[in-house]
Inverse folding.
């Protein structure tokens, strides 16, 4: 090859490089204040996974390698003991320290009431988005609806959305009183059209789909991977959207899915900060194209946690020393399971029933937010397991009500509720609503006409997670937090044996 040809090739390569325009999007969802790495017992390539400081390091590595890089989150940044102790201020400081460019509001951000959220989110050094939650009194939006982010010569439009079910059925009513939600499709196209011609990419941050399974190893258990139906439907309805980054279901997509009709991409991680989503777009042509995409595990064995993030977490712990108090011990690990009876669910239901003196204890699977490891149990660990502000509530229910509750649970719409004081014999292959074969309360058969006392949290007692029948029954709500009741019982008991499973028994109907 002569020098002229070589020179021409070099010029062509330079011309292509000069016109190349690429951007990297990193994304997370449903981190839910899981600050420390957890044991990755379901993987054979990683021993510990996640941790906010490690997420920060991984994000920083990509930023240094690829510019521009935008970092987005689809919601559920609150929950957990330190989040609760700081009323969410620590969480916004952490996301600011990591350098998030925008986040969407999730249902957990309302755990301390919308008034607290509205006040504390102003400390964020990034836009906090939602376009379809409104104040009832004025019909004005609760949060900033959209933002246009700019780095170098790249501009992206980002819009935040909340699912109707996520708003209505996974938030305590008192925490959203004075607000209402519109279906995302009713509002979002207006904002897409508003920014479309001004930006290179339009991205929707959504918090919808089916409620997430509370199971740590969901990545390895297809049974609890709840999909992304609402995001997929929305992707087929909207015009001019390049990508939807979804949350709430805690489903994970190893690579984004493309809607065949619109070309809109859908991406999400498995939540809890165990992965960071990665996608790099080529913006050189009229239509953005994907250069590469993956779901990056946050390998805590290989990452050195960011010192700034670590310092924020440690300072918060020092300011709340009561969280480190050891209140009891358990003899072995107590894992949570979403669709099956779990040792941890049995333990919590037993503690709640014994505390209240009720005949039956009920803890929804979705309320159990972390596993408990064997050994010392601290206040922080209990509040990570049950971080909510629910109070102990005793409901007077009939045997017929109990049968309805158990059938509702066996539909698995919100996971398998965990009970104490009853034994259920059921046929999971039967049609929904016909799965219960018989129920025993203690050693006696359930009496449909008799009234029983059932203890649960106030969220469930007021109809949360579609347990609407409880809201219609007579009830007595105490001032004692459910989490405080767990702590008191552990203090009183000292060392506990984690109860065995066996309260749910498979039984085929008699022929």
């Amino acid at each position: 090859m002569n020098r002229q040809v070589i020179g021409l090739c070099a010029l062509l390569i330079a011309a292509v490089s000069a016109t190349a325009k690429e951007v990297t999007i990193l994304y997370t969802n449903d981190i839910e204040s899981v600050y420390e790495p957890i044991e990755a017992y379901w993987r054979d390539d990683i021993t510990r996974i996640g941790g906010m400081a490690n997420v920060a390091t991984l994000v920083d590595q990509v930023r240094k390698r690829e510019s521009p890089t935008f970092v987005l989150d689809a919601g559920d940044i609150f929950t957990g003991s330190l989040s609760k102790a700081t009323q969410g201020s620590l969480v916004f400081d952490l996301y600011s320290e990591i350098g998030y460019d925008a986040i969407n509001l999730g249902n957990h951000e309302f755990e301390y009431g919308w008034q607290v959220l509205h006040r504390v989110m102003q400390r964020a050094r990034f836009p906090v988005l939602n376009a379809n939650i409104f104040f009832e009194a004025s019909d004005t939006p609760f949060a900033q609806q959209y933002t246009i982010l700019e780095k170098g010569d790249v501009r992206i439009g980002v819009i935040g959305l909340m699912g109707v079910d996520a708003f209505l059925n996974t938030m305590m009513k008192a925490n959203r009183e004075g607000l209402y939600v519109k279906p995302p499709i009713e509002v979002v196209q207006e904002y897409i059209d508003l920014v479309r011609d001004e930006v290179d990419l339009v991205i929707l941050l959504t918090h919808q789909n089916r409620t997430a399974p509370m199971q740590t190893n969901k990545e390895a258990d297809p049974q609890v991977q709840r999909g992304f139906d609402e995001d997929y439907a929305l992707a087929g309805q909207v015009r001019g959207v390049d990508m939807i980054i979804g949350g709430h279901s805690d489903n994970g997509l190893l690579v984004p899915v493309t809607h065949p009709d619109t070309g809109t991409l859908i991406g999400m991680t498995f939540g809890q900060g165990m992965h960071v989503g990665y996608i790099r777009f080529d913006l050189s042509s009229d239509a953005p194209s994907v250069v590469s995409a993956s779901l990056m595990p946050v390998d805590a064995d290989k990452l050195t946690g960011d010192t700034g993030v670590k310092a924020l977490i440690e300072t918060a712990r020092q300011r709340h020393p009561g969280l480190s108090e050891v209140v009891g011990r358990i003899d072995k690990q107590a894992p949570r399971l979403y669709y099956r009876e779990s040792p941890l669910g049995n333990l919590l239901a037993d503690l709640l029933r014994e505390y209240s003196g009720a005949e039956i204890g009920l803890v929804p699977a979705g309320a159990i937010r972390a596993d408990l490891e064997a050994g010392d149990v601290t206040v922080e660990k209990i509040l990570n397991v049950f971080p909510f502000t629910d109070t102990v509530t005793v409901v007077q229910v009939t045997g017929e009500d109990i049968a309805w509750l158990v059938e509702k649970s066996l539909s698995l719409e919100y996971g398998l509720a965990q009970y104490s004081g009853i034994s259920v014999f059921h046929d999971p292959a039967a049609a929904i609503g016909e799965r219960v074969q018989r129920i025993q309360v203690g050693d006696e058969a359930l009496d449909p006409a008799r009234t029983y006392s059932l203890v649960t949290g106030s969220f469930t007692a007021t109809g949360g997670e579609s347990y609407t029948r409880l809201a219609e029954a007579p009830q007595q709500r105490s001032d004692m937090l459910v989490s405080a009741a767990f702590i008191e019982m552990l203090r009183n008991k000292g060392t506990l044996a984690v109860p065995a499973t066996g309260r749910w028994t498979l039984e085929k109907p008699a022929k």
